[in-house]
Amino acid sequence: MVSLARENLLHEKSKIVLSVGGVVLAVFLIFATTGIYFGIVTVVENMVLKAGADLWVTSQGASGSLHSPSLLNSRIGEELKRINGVKEVAPLIRRPIATNVNGEKLLISINGFDTASGLGGPWKVVKGTAIPGKGDAIVDRVLAKNKGMDIGGVINLEGKQFKVVGISDETFTLISYMVFVTMEDARSFMPVDLTNFFLVNANSPAEIAGVKTAIESAFPAVSVSTSQQNAAEAKTETVGGFLPIVLVISAIGVLVGILVVGLLVYTMTIEKSREYGVVRAIGAPNFYLYKIVLFQALTISVLGFVIGAAISPPLISFMQYLVPEFVSVMTPKVILWVFFLFVATGLVASFIPARRLSRIDPAVVFKGQ
Amino acid sequence: MNITRETNNNIAIDLQRLSKVYGSGHVAVKAVDDVSLHVTKGEMVAIMGPSGSGKTTLLQMIGALLRPTSGEVFIDGKNISLLSENGLPRVRLQNFGFIFQTPNLLSSLTATQNVELVLNLAGKKGQGARQRAEELLGQLGLGDRLSHKPAQLSGGEQQRVAIARALANNPPILLADEPTANLDSQAGHGVMELLGKVAREMGKTVVTVSHDMRIRYVVDRVLWLEDGRLRIRWSEGVTIDPVCLMIVEKDKTTHVLEHDGEKDYFCSAECKREFEAHRSKYKDVHISL
Ligand SMILES: Nc1ncnc2c1ncn2[C@@H]1O[C@H](COP(=O)(O)OP(=O)(O)OP(=O)(O)O)[C@@H](O)[C@H]1O
Ligand SMILES: [Mg+2]
Questions:
Q1: Is residue A330 in a domain?
Q2: Interval A190-239: pLDDT, tens
Q3: Segment-wise mean pLDDT, segments of 10 residues, chain B, 289 residues
Q4: What is the spatial distance between Cα A242 and Cα A252, in angstroms, rounded to a whole number?
Q5: Which of these three, A174, A189, A220, is where a domain ends?
Q6: Residue A232 belongs to some domain of the structure
Q7: Which of A220, A251, A266 is a domain's end point?
Q8: What is the pLDDT of residues A28-85, one digit of tens each?
Q9: Nearest-CA neighbor of A16 among A208, A228, A217, A265?
Q10: Closest CA of chain A from B87, distance in Å
Q11: What is the pLDDT of residues A314-350, one digit of tens each?
């Protein structure tokens, strides 16, 4: 079986390289942007989900955990412990402060957690320890890299010195860097007797709902949310405004893909229009010619996708190496989505050349060249 | 209108009062004007005539590439003028092999692939198609050019690939529009003789348009088209102006030139002057009827 579509493509190698290159860039652009989006989503969700609590207790109307102005009286911790079905309760301070870190003003999220239970502590420690002692700090990887800090180093926060004992990942939110310290150390950054959250674990998963209602009726002034609810809320708070930007940039990527592929297949169709006229004159049905442009457009866009998907992870890692803030995550789901996006790109891109094909008059073959 | 005609099933092509008008109103051109014609199976017919006389237009209508303005085309008794646009490609594929003035090969395919492609189109695939393509090219003397791309072949070789392509699906009818016009005199003659020989061997019906007077020795019948009308069959009283290729009635024209014991007849003093000025250019066109 002779594939005119394939042979015509192979006849135009340099054009193909350029076009595939264009698609690869578009694919990378999409992976990088959606990657940043999913990177943030992962961080924000993990900030809640990886805290290790069944339930989050917050002040009313402040259930989300990131920007939430949740403030609770520290004393209710003891009372929460007495509720039926509760296994453990731990306070959590998550307080953003704008402060000078080694000479640069940065937004730092001070995380004071209960080192005994570990609830609310760093969940992905890449170096050092996960449990700080008094005067110790576990700092975000990006912050550490930017400020040249390492284990044994010192971080200065609002005039207080902490010793760096661990480096944690997934703790940079694009706007703030998380630093983990003991509950006692964190209290010095808070007004007296206030904490931001209480993390509650039930005796068994079956008791979570009961515990939630019990807390709600015992403390009408607080909100209780499950980890999942809280995470969802944190996600909407943070990335709600970011998502349209991601969609717009991805749409631009797809559009670039469509233009690059469409233009290539269109010019190839124009250049070969006389030959396609010959094929029609000989007796090929229109469908045969449509399959040619479809094959060509799909080949270019899928090839671009495959190469783009293959080089994106190393490229993203490299960019992360250069720019630590470039946190980007490629999930299998996104890869699948982008694949379909570029199959669609091929389909759309073949539309214009296909229309052009249907207008080729087979009688051109009778005219001299 | 007739769907099929009660005809002698020895007739391959049957044209009934065929006309084609391009455009309309004051720009209308009557390219073919009321042409009726039978071509019997296995017959080889040449259509000649001056430029713009409607030869290509007529051939396109026979080959289901152009719809007549009026009249009907019967191919093997079947009225193809009644078919829908979508039905025409299949008619072309099954009934006709086309050979054009330029070889019109597909530039990214090899000689073999060019032939194989039309076999594929007709549903013949795989090894068998490839073999048939190679065999045909071999028969046309291109056995050592199978994997050459068109750009690596001479004009005559390209035209022979085009003939192989036209023959690939074993169509009963070959339609050729000036198949030798782009070749030099010698290569052109070679291609024409080859075409004639293969067509005879394979029993094909052939309609070919040509400007080359030597085609007379290859075909069974020459038809003369002028202003879209079939004018004459060859007869004693008429001849052709070698310059403008118009028909000239020998006893009506006063523009005659005697040379080397032969007589040339011209439609006008202008053509005669042109002939005298560039005699060698018209050497091949010299005809005696
Ligand atoms: N697509 C078209 N639209 C309008 N007029 C056309 C078209 N094709 C051909 N004609 C006109 O129809 C007439 C016959 O053209 P045709 O091409 O059939 O002539 P021909 O005998 O093949 O000429 P030649 O020997 O130069 O190839 C000419 O006057 C030409 O200008
Ligand atoms: Mg012509």
A1: yes
A2: 888 899 999 999 999 999 999 999 999 999 889 999 999 888 888 887 77
A3: 59 94 92 92 90 93 94 93 89 94 93 96 93 94 94 93 94 92 82 86 92 78 87 66 77 83 84 85 52
A4: 16
A5: A220
A6: no
A7: A220
A8: 999 998 888 888 888 888 889 999 999 999 988 776 666 667 889 888 899 999 999 9
A9: A265
A10: 9
A11: 999 898 888 888 878 888 988 999 999 999 999 999 9
If one counts the domains in chain A, the total is 2
Which among B56, B117, B126 has CB closest to A366? B56
What's the CA-to-centroid distance between A358 and ligand 1, angstroms? 23
Ligand 1 atom nearest residue B49's Cα? 21
Asked whether A58 and A180 are in contact (CB, 8 A), the reply is: no
Same domain, residue pair A215 and A145: yes
The model's pLDDT over A167-200, given as tens digits with 9 standing for 90+, comes to 999 899 888 899 999 999 999 988 888 999 999 9
pLDDT tens digit sequence for A125-173: 999 999 999 999 999 999 999 888 999 999 988 888 999 999 999 899 8
| A30 and A70, same domain (yes or no) | no
Kindly report the protein residue whose alpha carbon is nearest to atom 31 of ligand 1.
Answer: B52
* Residue where the block lists tokens 């015992």: A218
Q: Residue A154: which domain range?
A: 61-220
A215 and A144 share one domain: yes
Answer yes or no: do A362 and A275 share one domain.
yes
Angle, alpha carbons B126-B130-B136 (nearest 5°): 145
Note whether A287 and A338 are same-domain residues.
Answer: yes
Same domain, A194 and A271: no
Select from A3, A279, A282, A359 the residue whose CB has the most chain B CBs within 10 Å, as the one to mutate to test that interface: A282
CA–CA distance, B168 with B98 (Å, rounded to integer):
11
Could you tell me if residue A53 is inside a domain?
no
What are the tokens at A107? 């937004």
Instruction: Indicate whether A141 and A37 sit together in one domain.
Output: no
Displacement of CA B248 from its chain's centroid (Å): 23
Paired sense of beta strands B173-177 and A86-101, if any: unpaired
Which residues, in sequence order, are CB contacts of A301 under 8 Å at separation 6+? A23, A257, A261, A342, A343, A345, A346, A349
Cα-to-centroid distance, A369 and ligand 2 (Å): 13
- Contacts of residue B252, defined as CB under 8 A and 6 or more positions apart, other chains included, come to none
Q: Measuring from each residue's beta carbon to the nearest atom of ligand 1, which residues come in under 6 Å?
A: B 22-23, 29, 31, 49, 51-57
Residue of B86, B92, B102 with shortest CB distance to A283 = B92
For the segment A276-315, what is each residue's pLDDT rounded down to a tens digit?
999 999 999 989 999 999 999 999 999 999 999 999 999 9
The residue type found at B253 is T
pTM of the entire predicted model: 0.79
> Looking at beta carbons, which residues of chain B come within 8 Å of A286?
86, 89
Ligand 2 midpoint to CA B151 (Å): 25
Residue A257 domain-assigned (yes or no): yes
**Are both A263 and A149 inside the same structural domain?**
no
